[in-house]
Write a structure and sequence with these properties.
The complex is a heterodimer of chains A (about 450) and B (about 425). Chain A is an alpha/beta fold and about 450 residues long. Chain A has 18 helices and 14 strands. The two termini of chain A are about 25 Å apart. Chain B has about 425 residues and is α/β, with parallel strands linked by helices. In chain B, α1 crosses α8 and α6 crosses α8. The chains are: A alpha/beta (about 450), B alpha/beta (about 425). β6 of chain A pairs antiparallel with β10 of chain B, so a sheet runs across the interface.
């Protein structure tokens, strides 16, 4: 879908998912690595025994499929300032040829120390460039240059306060999530800016804040205080929402299941169906079956019911699930349309029949491992233009010579008169021949 | 679409200039309207912060699909729209006769973007479900918590917070420019909700046979890395020590002795329990906000674990204008969130509130006259119960809603939802 789109990915482990999403959609993505390799090559998990190997990081393997790798010294922190100057000039050439640049640099850092690679400087080089920056707090504001890791962003973005056991500190999702949210947001933001470019002919700087992105994971409870509503409080296996202890985790005979028992016209009937099953097995009373599934919350507000009755109903359900295996519960959930599924570990996910049937997984073959392993496949199934998921991951600097030689040979497409450029893009994006017409753009519109 | 996964994605389109029409029914309450946070903690169909936040900036219409006239309205909307989105299980759309094939028969070049928990096919696809189940089935729930306890779990409907970003992507990009729309162009049908499988954990399992362990707040390489108590009831600060330099800075700020400051990463790993207790004893009685400033000034990554009250006064979010107080028909004003990214040269339009349910019987009619030559005639409006007066009232709404680049044929779309059947 994005064939012909050229993306420079100068981000580190925090932003590389964005470029990979664009690569999955067909864009040509060039990863710009500093000398010594992208920091993400030093982020775990690693292939056992390959912790020091630049091709051993499974984080790198997760988020750099389908990219080409070019090593350039943009920061100039090393011992060779002459090389840095030359590399920055090469980078400028690449920027002139690109549609999109993604970075995750500290705001302001790329224009400091004579680097001359700040957003406004790059926009002058290539007015049609969509430059997307992924940072912890955004490009401006009092915290823009604060030190931040995933843990810091999920703390600043409230998600952390909502998770964990109530008698222990709040707890985070152990795999870094905040910057992945931001990166996925950044890919969407980039496409929106590209669409806008069709009209204006101009690129722009797109500023993605990981703090603001992860706030989406509060399910709008970020607004509680402003709406004069009570704070959500953390609870192991569920959530304390006002007077209600909403449990999600429920014991099964062989592990845990996720069981949602809530009320209202849409969700209440799921609970009633669960209790019809429990009742049929003789494990609840008539009163419990005829619980106030639709209007319970209102009944509590009006003082007709007590939140303790909700606790009791959840006790009954958990006593029921605790006697049955995850597989039994899932089979019946499918049959009876219940909100009841196993709490899966990663092995359960990878081995699940569902994803085999959907042909979801793809494989990569890291040389350090010497065999193929599964990676997540297409995030969307498109009926007419299925995603071609790339399965190669570049060695450090593998494409430096080739890419730089191509740029040197290629006409400087982005210096075309802007209206002409826009029109070509519009025509290029139409219909099944999109790839071909965009690929030939340099000769038709600039030649 | 309903609740969050679908509406969140079309909210982004609306923020950036698309005209999004949300289709609801009066026969059943949309679930998001029954989910908090509620204004003043009072339930009510117009009081849900979730609903208002997810649907700000959209137009609304209510239809009763049991009535044959409604079909005509649906067909008009589809002909007007560029994109139809839904977030139901596949069975629901089949039941309404609104599968991709049905919609193509109405408009051959329509884009249909479907997102649901387990995709449009596969053994689990018939599960009607919520993101809480997606969180459980994707591995996130199991790995979040303490090694000595049952899984604490990721908060809420986690996959609903991830999938919107994947959902709107193909929809946002693959549309043909207006000039070419009459040509029947093949259209993608995106589907599927659970892509949020944590990729490095999948590869770790494949390469090493390892299952991502619950590890509290610990980190494989940053030591220490945790959440520590500060002054106040249930108040905490997160601290991440990225390397030796940051560790020495922390020891200097906290007044720890030189022996501790000299520990390298491996030594800190070996003594992690002890170091965490030492840090907790230092942070325990201190003010969290002062402490985070001290640590940040000293080069150590730290932040108070914020609650919604903290967010409302967070100088960063205030600076970024994240929370917006927008006019609301029932409440005067209502707080919603702004966009999560900024297009700096040509910013997004200012947010407008979600349409009140009761006013949605007819408010999208302006859209026909504004953007299509195929406007429905007066006869059809009357059949569907829409009067001339409401048509005009709807047209007034067009002014603000089509600001930005929607009226130039921008990211126009048709968000569609109905409560699940």
């Amino acid at each position: 879908m994005l064939t012909g789109l050229r993306v420079l990915d100068a981000s580190d482990h925090r932003g590389q998912l964005a470029g990979q999403i664009l690569a999955d959609l067909g864009a040509e993505v060039i990863l710009i690595e500093p000398p010594g390799g992208s920091p993400s090559r030093r982020v775990g998990p690693f292939i056992d025994g390959h912790e020091q190997d630049p091709d051993g990081s499974l984080w790198f393997w997760s988020y750099n499929r389908g990219k080409r790798s070019v090593v350039l010294d943009l920061h100039g922190d090393g011992a060779d300032p002459a090389r840095a100057d030359a590399d920055r000039e090469r980078f400028r050439e690449l920027v002139r040829s690109a549609d999109v640049l993604i970075d995750s640099a500290i705001p302001g850092s790329m224009s400091e120390a004579g680097r001359g690679l700040g957003p406004s400087e790059l926009a002058e080089l290539n007015p049609a460039l969509v430059h997307t920056s992924i940072t912890a707090f955004g490009q401006d504001g009092p915290k823009a240059r604060w030190h931040a890791t995933d843990l810091i962003v999920v703390a600043a973005g409230m998600q952390l306060s909502m998770m964990g056991d109530s008698d222990r500190p709040p707890v985070r999702v152990p795999l870094e999530q905040a910057f992945l949210h931001a990166s996925a947001e950044a890919a969407a933001a980039t496409l929106i800016a590209l669409r806008e470019r069709r009209r204006s002919g101009l690129g722009q700087h797109v500023d993605v804040s990981a703090q603001q992105a992860i706030l989406q994971a509060t399910q709008s409870y970020a607004l509680s205080s402003l709406l004069n509503a009570a704070e959500i409080r953390r609870m192991s296996g569920g959530t304390k929402a006002g007077p209600f202890n909403v449990r999600v985790r429920s014991k099964a005979a062989d592990g845990y299941v996720s069981n949602t028992i809530l009320f209202g016209e849409a969700i209440g009937p799921f609970g009633r169906r669960l209790f019809e099953w429990i009742h049929a097995e003789g494990e609840c009373t008539d009163d419990e079956l005829h619980f106030e599934w639709i209007d319970f919350v209102a009944a509590v507000t009006e003082g007709r019911r007590s939140p303790a009755e909700y606790d009791h109903i959840q006790d009954v359900a958990e006593a029921f699930t605790a006697k049955r295996t995850k597989a039994e519960l899932l089979a019946e959930a499918l049959r009876r349309r219940l909100l009841l599924v196993p709490i899966a570990n990663v092995a359960d996910v990878v081995e699940a029949e569902h994803y085999q049937v959907r042909d979801y997984w793809r494989t990569v073959e890291p040389p350090a491992l010497g065999r193929a392993i599964r990676v997540p496949g297409p995030f969307v199934k498109c009926s007419k233009t299925p995603l071609q998921i790339p399965t190669t991951v570049p060695a450090m600097g593998a494409d430096t010579g080739q890419v730089l030689a191509d740029v040197a040979r290629r006409p400087d497409v982005r210096t075309c008169p802007i209206p002409q450029l826009v029109w070509t893009q519009v025509a290029g994006a139409a219909g099944p021949s999109a790839g071909r017409s965009r690929a030939s753009r340099s000769s038709t519109s600039c030649g | 679409m309903w609740v969050m996964a679908g509406p969140a994605s079309t909210r982004v389109l609306a923020d950036h200039g698309a005209t999004v029409v949300r289709v609801e029914t009066f026969n059943r309450t949309e679930t998001a309207r029954t989910i908090g946070p509620f204004l003043n903690d009072l339930g009510g169909s117009e009081n849900s912060g979730l609903y208002q936040n997810m649907n700000a900036g959209k137009l609304g219409i209510t239809l009763d699909l049991a009535k044959p006239e409604a079909r005509g309205v649906i067909e008009d909307l589809v002909r007007w729209a560029d994109i139809v989105t839904d977030s139901f299980s596949p069975k629901a759309m089949r039941g309404w006769g609104l599968t991709y094939e049905d919609l193509c028969a109405i408009k051959p070049d329509i884009i249909v973007a479907s997102t649901c928990l387990f995709g449009q096919y596969g053994p689990l696809s018939s599960l009607a479900g919520f993101g809480t189940m997606g969180a459980a089935m994707s591995g996130f729930y199991e790995m979040t918590g303490w090694p000595d306890r049952p899984p604490a779990g990721v908060f809420g409907a986690y996959t609903d917070y991830l999938s919107p970003r994947y959902h709107l992507r193909p929809a946002g990009r693959s549309r043909t420019p207006r000039a070419h729309r009459r040509r029947p162009v093949p259209r993608p049908v995106p589907s599927g909700g659970v892509h949020g499988v944590p990729a490095p954990a999948v590869l770790d399992y494949g390469a090493n046979g390892r299952l991502a362990p619950a590890m509290g707040n610990r980190h494989p390489t940053m030591k220490p890395h945790g959440v520590f108590p500060v002054a106040g009831e249930d108040r905490w600060i997160a601290i991440a020590v990225e390397g030796d330099e940051q560790w020495r800075a922390l020891c200097g700020l906290a007044g720890f002795d030189g022996e501790l400051a000299a520990l390298d990463g491996a030594a800190r790993r070996a003594r992690e329990d002890e170091l965490e207790a030492t840090i907790a004893a230092w942070t325990n009685a201190r003010d969290g906000f002062e402490l985070q400033q001290t640590l940040q000034d000293g080069g150590v990554a730290a932040h108070v674990v914020q609650t919604s009250a903290d967010l409302a006064t967070d100088p960063q979010l205030v600076h970024r204008n994240h929370f917006r107080n927008v006019a609301h028909a029932d409440h005067g004003t209502f707080w919603i969130e702004g966009p999560r990214f900024r297009c700096r040269a040509r910013p997004t339009r200012s947010a407008t509130p979600a349409r009140p349910w009761a006013s949605t019987r007819s408010t999208c009619w302006w859209a026909y006259s504004a953007t299509t030559t195929n406007a429905p005639g007066r006869r059809r409006r009357r059949r569907a119960g829409v009067s001339r007066a409401t048509f005009r009232r709807g047209a007034i709404g067009a002014g603000s809603a089509s600001a930005g680049f929607a009226h130039q044929g921008g990211l126009s779309g048709c968000g569609r939802r109905r409560s699940e059947g």
